[in-house]
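The pair is quoted verbatim underneath.

:::
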Amino acid sequence: MIGLGTYAYFWQHSDRVPEPLSLIDAFEDTRAQGVDLFQICDYAPLEQMSDSELRDAAGAARDLGLTIELGTKGIVPEHLTRFLELAKIFDAHLVRSMLYGPDSRPSLAEAETWLRHTLPTYEAAGVTLALETYEQLATTDLLAVIERVGSEHLGVCLDPANVVARLESPRICVEQTAALTKNVHVKDFAFARQPGWVGFTYSGASMGSGLHDYAHLLETVQPRERGINEIVEHWLPWQDDAETTIRTEREWTRATLEHLRSTQ
């Protein structure tokens, strides 16, 4: 299933724009674009919401017919337990996280111990934990931890754009993780020369205009055949003013949805 995530609304949620969208606003906009899935990922206000606010948001998603996934950072057992509680409120069956969190950087052995402690409760609830590929950790190390834990409810959130900062190949990352992928983050990316030809900027690009060989990902991972959701997000730099930034963010979302739908 194709979905949108909070990173597709990064600037529209931001206090840098005159009228930031609420979470429910983003749900409504997602449904208006004919999308049935939303991933609330790294959305700081989520953990500050009261129980009634959480129930209201979950109810709004259900009323709109949206499937919800959640996303956070870190694998401290207490933190993952809290997100399992949130997953139950939203009827979410997937939580995306990262091995390292804001206040935790476990060794690989510690990570394995923490995950073994937590995974039984995820398994019992029918919730999958998908750990993202990113530059702070070698993809081979991430895979080694996942393979050692050995749970059907633990796998990879595949984002090949992230690993470039570690000088890993996005294409190789896709091939390495294909068998264990449980979730896909969809965004294009490109390098651009800095003014004066003094280096490059690595940033987002409108889908189909950058370096991401998404056809290779589809062929290798086969997310649609395997029921793996594809979540749209962006790396969009600020575009000088709020109006231009919001317009560009929405244009990138439309372009990405069109690109994904054209490959179905």
